[in-house]
Amino acid sequence: MTKRKDFKNFSWQIRVYWQDTDAAKIVYHPNYLNFAQQARSEFMREFVCKESDVLEKYGVLLVVRHAEVDYSASARLDDIIDVTVEVGKIGNSSMVLHQNITRDGTLLAAVKITIVAMVPNGKAVRIPPQLRQIFEA
Known about the structure:
It is a single chain. This protein is α+β, with helices and mostly antiparallel strands. It is 21% helix and 39% strand. A 6-stranded antiparallel sheet has the order 1-2-4-5-6-3. Strand 4 and strand 5 form a beta hairpin. The protein is elongated, with a radius of gyration of 15 Å.
């Protein structure tokens, strides 16, 4: 699909397929989190690196600690939806990402994701300075 490559206004388009819907051809509610993850993955790929390379390149894992979804309307089979990614508050070891899922300008779901920097043993650590600099851009 297509994307806007602006860091402040990143958007990724996704088509809704059969596997995303229930018997009524309406997107099954947990799949909005999948759509949000796909957009975050593309955001990372565009501005940081492939998610699979974050540990090697920056020495941390970026792990979802908390997710909130506020559903407003339903997406349906074959819809083209836009999923935005916006960096919000950045703390010592965590950051908040705000994501909107829309169809033709209509808000379908607002997603708030808290990401924590961790080392492989599961301990939260400070976001590395070079990574922080990218997200604070």
